[in-house]
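Researcher: Structure for this, please.
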Amino acid sequence: MPEMNVPIDVICKHTKEGDVIPIKFKVQDDDGEYQTYVVKAYRKATGDTGEVVLPNGVIVTSHLQPFECKIRVFNIERVIWLYYNKSDGLWLVKR
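Model: Predicted structure, token format:
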């Protein structure tokens, strides 16, 4: 998977309450091929409007919304972090 500073394609749902929910995402692998992953479960990390440091060392500000997501890769469940940048509408991934 790419590093976090590379935007990725995400299919998401926007709720009437203004929440964003990731459903599926696509990333380019080391061979240049696109791989699609379905989000099996997610947890939206919350905090106040200031900066928050997550356990993986990423600093989250009010414009960056982190999601802890479960996906299946070769029939093995993995946890990955997706980040939605509210200010520019881009999704990022952290491996």
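Researcher: Any notable elements?
Model: The CA atoms of residues 2 and 15 lie 28 Å apart. The chain has one domain: 7-94.
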